[in-house]
Design brief:
Layout: E1 8-13, H1 24-30, E2 35-37, H2 50-58, E3 64-70, H3 72-83, E4 91-94, H4 103-132, H5 139-150, H6 154-165, E5 181-186, H7 194-203, E6 208-212, H8 219-222, H9 224-239
Parallel strand pairs: 1-2, 1-3, 3-4, 4-5, 5-6
Length: 240
C-alpha cells in the first residue's frame, strides 16, 4: 500500500443513527488533497464494544491517521487514542462527550433499544430528528439525513446503542492527548451542548474549541462550510 498523501489518512467517523454517507461532501472536498476513509459503524467483525470497533477500523488503514469523530464517532476516536496513540497525528472531536453514561443515560439507552426493536429505524428517526438539528436547519439538510438513518438495520442500530451505553470514561485520557486537537460543537446542540465541548477542550493541552453558529448536533451536515474550514485548519497544522 502506498503511503497516504500528506503523511496521514483522515479517518471520518459518523454520528448515530446515520451511516458513512454523512461524510460524502467532506470526502469530495478533501479527496483531491488527502486520503480519506469513512467506515460505516459498527464495522464488520467489530463486535458490540468500542474496543473491538477500534481494532477493526485501525486495520482498514496503514500508517498515521487523523480521526474526525462526531457524536458516536467521537467516542470511537477516544478509543482509537487509547489503543494506538502512536498512530494518531491529530484529532477532531465534534459534538461528543468524554464522560461515561450516567445511570439516567443508561436507562434512556434501554428505552431506545426497546424503541428500535418495536418500531425499527423509522421509529428511531421520528424520535431523534427534532433533537439532531437546530430550529433554523434547512429542510433539505434534514431530508438528506433521513435516508441515511432509515437505511440502517435494527440490529446495527441496537449494536450502536449498546456500544454508546457501555463506553468507557474518556476523561482520564484527556491530559494524555498530545497531538493537535480540535473540539467542535454546534452552538444549538441539545444532545451534547457547548459546555460538554468546553470541558473536553479544557482537559486537552493546547486543544482549540470552535463553536459553530446555527448548528445543532451535526455540524458537518448543517453547516458544512464552517465545519470544513475548521477541519482544514487542523489538518494544515498536522501537516505543517
Amino acid at each position: 500500500m502506498n503511503a497516504p498523501r500528506g503523511g496521514f489518512t483522515v479517518l471520518l467517523l459518523h454520528a448515530f443513527p446515520l451511516d458513512a454517507r454523512m461524510w460524502d461532501e467532506t470526502c469530495r472536498e478533501l479527496g483531491a488533497e488527502l486520503d480519506t476513509v469513512a467506515p460505516t459503524l459498527p464495522p464488520q467483525g467489530g463486535g458490540r464494544r468500542l474496543a473491538g470497533w477500534a481494532e477493526e477500523v485501525l486495520s482498514l488503514v496503514e500508517g498515521e491517521v487523523v480521526p474526525v469523530g462526531v457524536s458516536m464517532g467521537g467516542y470511537l476516536a477516544f478509543e482509537l487514542w487509547r489503543q494506538a496513540p502512536e498512530r494518531i497525528s491529530g484529532l477532531v472531536l465534534s459534538d461528543t462527550r468524554a464522560g461515561p453514561e450516567t445511570h439516567e443515560g443508561r436507562a434512556g439507552r434501554e428505552r431506545t433499544i426497546e424503541l428500535i426493536r418495536e418500531r425499527g429505524a423509522t421509529g428511531l428517526w421520528q424520535e431523534m430528528e427534532p433533537k439532531l438539528f437546530s430550529p433554523t436547519a434547512e429542510p433539505e439538510v434534514v431530508e438528506r439525513a433521513r435516508p441515511l438513518a432509515l437505511g440502517r438495520s435494527p440490529d446495527d442500530l441496537v449494536t450502536c446503542v449498546e456500544a454508546i451505553r457501555d463506553r468507557p470514561d474518556s476523561r482520564p485520557s484527556l491530559p494524555t492527548i498530545d497531538v493537535p486537537t480540535l473540539v467542535v460543537v454546534g452552538e444549538k446542540d441539545e444532545l451534547t451542548p457547548p459546555p460538554e465541548a468546553a470541558a473536553i477542550a479544557s482537559g486537552i493541552p493546547g486543544a482549540k474549541l470552535v463553536a459553530i453558529p446555527e448548528s445543532g448536533h451535526l455540524p458537518p451536515l448543517e453547516q458544512p462550510g464552517a465545519f470544513l474550514a475548521s477541519l482544514r485548519a487542523l489538518l494544515a497544522e498536522v501537516g505543517a
